[in-house]
Design goal:
By secondary structure, the chain is mostly beta strands. Helices cover 13% and strands 45% of the residues. Strand 4 (102-108) and strand 5 form a beta hairpin. The longest helix is centred in the N-terminal third of the chain and has 28 residues, at 21-48. The two termini are 39 Å apart.
Length: 429
């Protein structure tokens, strides 16, 4: 947005044209959501910077990791990646997201200690610095979003540019770059509303949170002299005037704009995904057939699947695909519910596959209406749970199959994995 909500509200109230109360309420809610997101980001970064950590390691400052390939991942919907990524070797992450919904990326180490990498709403693209996180090694990456891409870049990456002060640098997305010959003065401007942050990582010394506020913003800040890495956090347009030690005003202007090259999309590292499961065979399932998920769970399609526009006072964006199932815990221990990412349904549309996550709200309300169990119920060994699985899908597909990967929390590994076709569907409307 090129103007803040509050400017828009003043225009509405004092221009003589009074907007409907419902419209104003909607605008207030939108502005509050933007403010809350920006304030939460600012507070999280403020807390993180209380930790006394070295500003930046020499390993991230110089190309000593020559020979490492970028690690590229892409997907649609919520996902887990089981990886092996040391952040001192891969200190940069470029990410994109195409959706109006939430986009979150969290990294976990082997002890399940986490670091929140991305936490935003809507379309996103930008570069992040990972060298000063709460973990130094990532074993699991949890993604929440729709169409997304992640590109982990090695320390020697040519994508991270180096500039010489005095210089003016502009951009319209989060960015990371080096600046040599910095003085003690920087002028910054953030035009669009939302969070605005600038962190300086000097080659020697401690990191310095230069700007941590809500845009629009314009001002001057004191910087540390010498060579530094700068990390910019903003989803909108920004500009930095970086002075040299003589306080000479910058004349050179450079614009930063990232894109993922086609050749990087084919780059992968088998060593980076040692826990990746092999492709699972699709079982041709029938109603009432007992399907084993390893020796951990038993799955049964109980009723004929239904596709309908609405159910339980809810209306789908596309169509609801409703599947009533029996799920039995075959282990010897009680499992306190299954996470919603235990279930994924995939449709084949003109030869192209598209996957959809479980609609947890619609699943809960449908099961509640029919007075049956929930996926969040306790799974007692040997006792079946009767429940509905509901997915919001665009339309009919040439074929459907369901992937069942039971896990007791979104970030844990699944007990097992099985893929099965969806029996003949009853199209209600």
């Amino acid at each position: 947005m090129k103007k803040t909500f509050f400017m828009c509200l003043v225009v509405i109230l004092f221009s003589g044209a009074f907007a409907p109360v419902a419209q104003i309420s909607s605008l207030i809610e939108t502005a509050q959501a933007i403010t809350n997101e920006a304030n939460a980001t600012a507070e999280a970064i403020r807390r993180q910077n209380y930790q006394a950590q070295p500003a930046i390691t020499e390993q991230a400052m110089s190309p000593i990791n020559g020979g490492l390939e970028p690690l590229y991942f892409r997907g649609r919907g919520d996902d887990l990646l089981f990886v092996d990524i040391p952040l001192d070797s891969y200190p940069y992450l470029y990410a994109t997201h195409s959706s109006r919904g939430y986009f979150g990326v969290t990294g976990y180490d082997e002890k399940d200690k986490s670091t929140l990498l991305i936490n935003t709403v809507g379309d996103f693209s930008g570069m992040l610095y990972l060298g000063a996180r709460q973990v130094d090694h990532v074993a699991t990456v949890e993604i929440q979003g729709q169409d997304w891409e992640l590109l982990f870049l090695p320390a020697s990456s040519d994508s991270i540019k180096t500039y010489q002060a005095p210089v003016t640098i502009t951009g319209n997305e989060p960015a990371v770059f080096f600046v040599e010959n910095m003085g003690n003065l920087m002028e910054a401007e953030f035009v669009d509303s939302g969070y605005a942050g600038v962190t300086q990582y000097p080659f020697s010394g401690r990191r310095n949170l230069l700007i941590n506020t809500v845009a629009p913003y314009a001002g001057k800040v004191k910087t540390t002299k010498g060579t530094s890495l700068l990390e910019i956090q903003s989803k909108g347009q920004w500009s930095l005037n970086i002075y040299d030690p003589s306080n000479i005003k910058p004349e050179k202007i450079v614009a930063i704009e990232y894109s993922i090259a086609d050749d990087l999309k084919s780059v992968s590292s088998e060593a980076a995904v040692p826990n990746q499961e092999p492709e699972v065979e699709i079982i041709q399932a029938r109603l009432g057939q007992k399907i084993n998920c390893g020796d951990k769970f038993e799955f049964i399609y109980y009723y004929q699947p239904i596709m309908t526009k609405s159910q339980s006072y809810q209306t789908a964006v596309g169509k609801f695909l409703m599947v009533r199932v029996y799920i039995t815990n075959m282990t010897h221990e009680k499992i306190e519910g299954l996470a919603s990412n235990s279930f994924t349904i995939t449709g084949v549309f003109n030869g192209l596959k598209e996957s959809f996550k479980l609609d947890a709200g619609a699943s809960w309300s449908t099961s509640y209406k029919w007075e049956i169990g929930q996926t969040t119920d306790d799974f007692i060994p040997g006792v079946k749970v009767d429940t509905y699985l509901v997915f919001d899908v665009p339309a009919k597909a040439d074929e459907w199959y369901l992937t069942f990967e039971p896990r007791d929390n979104p970030s844990s590994r699944s007990y097992c994995s099985v893929r099965m076709s969806v029996p003949k569907i009853n199209y209600v409307d």
